[in-house]
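Support case: user asked for a sample of complex input and structure output to validate their parser. Sending the pair below.
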Amino acid sequence: MLGYTVRRILQMVPVVLGATFIIYALTFLMPGDPVAALTGSRPLPESTVQQIRLAYHLDDPFLVQYGNYMLGLLQGNFGIDFFGRPVLGLILERLPVTFALAMTAWVLKLAIGLAIGVYGGLRNGQAGDHFALVFTVIFLGIPGFVIALGAQTVFGVQLGWVDPAGIRAGWPLAFILPALVMAIEASAGLARLTRTSLVDVLRAEYLRTARAKGLSPRRVVWGHALRNAMIPVVTYLGLSLAGMLGGAVIIEAIFNMPGIGGLMVTAINNKEGTVVVGIATMLVLVYLVFNLLVDLLYGIIDPRVRI
Amino acid sequence: MSSTRKANSMGIHQHANPAADAADDVLLRVKDLEVEFNTSKGVATAVNGMNLEVKRGQALGILGESGSGKSVTARAIMGILDMPPAHIPRGEILLEGEDLLTVTPRRHRQLVGSRVTMVFQDALTALNPVHPVGRQIGELYRVHRGYSRRDAKAAAIKMMDKVRIPAAAKRVNDYPHQFSGGMRQRIVIAMALALDPVLLIADEPTTALDVTVQAQILELLKEQQEERNMGLILITHDISVVREVTDQVAVMYAGRVVEHGPTAEVLSRPGHPYSRGLAASIAGEELKGRRLPAILGTPPDLLHLPAGCSFANRCAFASEACAASVPALELIDEARHSACFHTSEVLAHANA
């Protein structure tokens, strides 16, 4: 188990290298000049521009810039932005908001998706199943931002149950509506996967065995079927957490939440490579860690892949 | 016998005589059982008027080809048919006098898994992959007997020892995939024997195993059956298995028993043309270098069973009567039944 974990962590190194390289290159290739973007319509004196370009190594070849950046990163230095603020500080300041939003949404999604999926799976082919199917199709079909804006208007503005924007109310009040919007949209896929997986498992021979042992239907489902049905779902859940972080960026913008999303958008507009890559690196790391956790959890659920 | 009393007081078994069954030591009596499947193409009759009887200490083989209704009958007895698509329009399944088709679900769960149990064809798929084997055996003691976790585990180890799994105490926490095929089947057998059943149904228990392991598993089943004086139903398409293990054999064709009697007699002097075909198809020394005698034609379409005898279109003895009506399962000598209008001709042919 330990050997496996270490091996998995070592495997992350090339992934992090590759991911940061691609993101860095993409930022570098973006059209427009970073300094010009910084100053807007009133150009700076040429000497100042030169000074900035020098200070941020903007005239160095791409690979040198990337190499410098990675050297800093290895020492835990994420660099500074154009206003001289350390990037790591900027990210850590905003990461908790995004993280809280994504995790809340993820947990809600888990609850909604599993509940609908298990319900549909157990009522395979009956009215309840069809209802669950219609529900998931509707929410799969509507774009997320439409649900977000609708929910914001109805619950935030018209009913006034929660603040329509901002995080003044703190967790959980300020996070519930945006998280719920994300969860409902994302739970549709989870519900369908859970349903299909459960229907498959309910047909398995070992469930016949369980019934032939004289077990109650409840024990057959909860004791024998569900854990098996969860095996494919767990893989999906880990991957979907990354999707949650991505989705959070959009939802943050709609609900005006000071998370990573806003920072990322500003940084891209300003062509601030260090910030963009810093955020991306952070997300890649979070993603990899969750994937590792999922794989380890997978082994606990399914003894056949235990190492 | 509380079960017998219950069946009597309910007064639902007009045909069956539970008292007589108890006296005769009849464990299981299947009467006129029909099982149909609703398919997209229509209703398929998988079991079509099945009659069967198993006594205490008796090993009964059910012999037949794929689709003859052997497994469906077993599943109907165990109550593990998927309904729908299956349904049972007619029949009785009397276990020690109690009709398993009409008892309450609660009573059914008390009987199945404890009084009557089953060994499945493929132990790998029959065992839950995510539970340790000890837990799967112990679950029976926990659910049916209310054992504690610890006692159930101890009982499971004992059972694993009984079916000769080496180092049972060490392996009790292992998962099914960590065992070999033969050992897995032993675990399934341990589960089936755990609560001292009166009747064990083994549905092709050795089909998924290689030949040497097959012999060991059959030996284990036979030995346990004799030791416990238990009823055993062995479902198979393998005539040699039937010959080695069973006292009685029921030959099935298109959802019916066509011949039923002592194994040695049925196989050596078949009274039904189909059993005759089966017995003749065994490869032996005298057939070396010659074509195997196969039964010509194919089994009937279960969606459109013929009005008369289902075997008539493949039968060398068939006459007009065979196409008109279905021959009943009738006594042909002391202990043998055959469902054929031409049994005497078939027997005469064998003697000649």
